[in-house]
Amino acid sequence: MPSVALSLPDAFRQALRAYESGRLADCERLCRAILGIVRDHVDANHLLGLVQYRCGLWNEALASFEKARALAPQNAALLNHRGNVLKQLGRAAEALASYDQALAIRPQYVEALNNRGVTLHDLGRFDDALASFEAALAIAPRDAEAHNNRSITLKAQKRLSEALMSLDQALAIRPSYPDALNNRGNVLYELKAFTEALASYDSALAIRPDDADTLNHRGNILKALKRFDEALTNYDRALTLSPDHVSAHCNRGLTLHEIDRVEEALTSFDKALAISADHADALCGRGNALKHLGRFVEAQASYERAIAIAPDHEFAFGELADCALKLCDWDLQDRLAPALRRRAVDGKSVINPMVLFGYGDDDALHLAGAKQFAAQRLGAAPQPLWNGAVWRNDRIKLAYLSADFRQHPVAELIVGLFERHDRSRFETIGISFGPDDGSAMRARIRAACDQFHDVRAIGDREAASLLQELRVDIAVDLTGFTLGYRQILAHRPAPIAASYLGYPGTMGAHFIDYIIADRIIVPFDRAPCYSECIVHLPVSFMVNDCKREIAEAAPTRSEAGLPDHGIVFCCFNNHAKIAAPVFAGWMRLLHAVDGSVVWLSRASDAVMRNLRAAAVAHGIDPTRLVFAPRTAHLADHLARHRLADMFLDTLPYNAHATASDALWAGLPVVTCAGRSLAGCVAASLLEATGLADLVTHDLSQYEALALRLARDGAAIARVKARLAQNRASSPLFDTDRFRRHIEAAYVTMWERWQRGEHPQGFAVEPRAGAPETR
Known about the structure:
elongated
């Protein structure tokens, strides 16, 4: 109770000074003493509510404000503060009404206009929020907080340049404004201006070093710059300061996943979800980690929960669609397909175009999806490093960029080309951004390149700057949007960029000039469905290494779990490529051919369970699906192809490297050609090996051809003999001939650049190497 010598006005002034100096306990004690004397003291109730608000006692604060409001309903400041506490309680509509009441009393109340704008932003009413902030700025143009809040709404509307300008205005008024510095870093992050963003976060932390949010955001920048250890340090520091910081747990998980510490990533996501069970980003990240670990059923559940919480979640739908492919869950695929096609082009979901290949062979859709994906992942186009200059190196410098310079199908196919490049005309540079597995293949690729650079630990802009410094003439992307893709070429470090081999479709990106293909996989009349200019190699687009070894000894059928007698239909494709109509055809073949089996690669228990259940649904004994375990060496895997009678291809996504493996091992491939690049590769390979008669053009023909061969042992033997005879002379397996063809393509690209011409599609002639322009 105030001293008898202290009047109530003096007691209130003392309470107010205590509040302003941060002595909240003293302020509360004085307010309660005043209210003990005068229960209906408006200002004491109001001030007590502010203390309770500062202490996070939202319900108590609201009760105090309501007492004061009953006594002074026309107090604009009170209505503004009441709105703040209602907002904290999640009662946004009531908060908005309270701000509107305050503004009806005091129309030029800048603080209420600001708070109203923040609430409208939270309600997703961005245009109304901007109008409120701009009304505040019309009254107080030097209100840094209004400029800062306006920027947050502009960022939500993807108006990033305007958001940055608004933040610069806030900082011109108040240079040491940590919230604005932090938000400026967030906008620069979205603009991919990572170095500038990092500087902005550092400035914010210099003012407020223990801000967990800024440390979390700084970690995101370091992650984008591939400085993973530093990113983890920032997340860990944020979590030391704020152990329940869900975003920091989630971002830590994303970083651990990216550096292949997937089990640890899963732990981070689980910690985030223990704090906030409905955190959609953590659920999606957890799903990705589970999918990486082959735990597809758990991953599916995590994605579905994320979508239930946030139906428009940026990533969850596309990841669920991918999970459905990997599970061979065809019912789920059918349910997702219509929405997948819509979401792929409307920008509401980030969907890797690789997923679309499994849902159909509409290459117009593939282009639209790729364009959307490229725009989403890249953001604003970065300033190009190549400025149009023309130069001449002693030799044409080729830079091959890949995440797969390791024991991987892309490496196995292309290493022979690297070893055979004409070193008098070409200098080859390997740019690796994938893991170093320490394999003999990694060492072989490194030795085959004139230069080899591992850029895993540097950001995309830095890696692009390296290519620029090396004066690379032609950059060849071997990864596209497959696992581990990077956006190095988006910075346009070289005058010519081409997509080849690793990614079976258009990139939909302005920074890729050419796609290296052939007349079968990408006919020139499909040019409208490709953002790149099409280059036709004379035979097949696929390179092969003619040094690939096949083990002399193969297991017996019995040792491989196959029947000693009967037809073995083989498909060692990725299980995600197995579509329901193709599988149904396989089951009809098993019905028609007694004692036959389908031989597949071993998969996760869930996938094998789904495929066996599907066999039963078709009336087939599930033991007639035989799953082959992985072998330690490719040579042993190639050798066991001898146990099969024919390789049955998939559609809409063909066998690519696996079809090449089968043909190299002497196993005929029966394919059905689709309409897109991904669905025509096997047809290209068969044409190049003189087995075009094994190419069909609808699934009924495909099934009929496989059945005819299965019923005629002599016919299978003749096809195998023809393949064995052709293999020795086939252009598909003549690495040196392929080298001459692709080098002719590179020279044509280079000569066009030298003449100052724009990229244009062309075909390389098989003999003279003179390209035919299209």
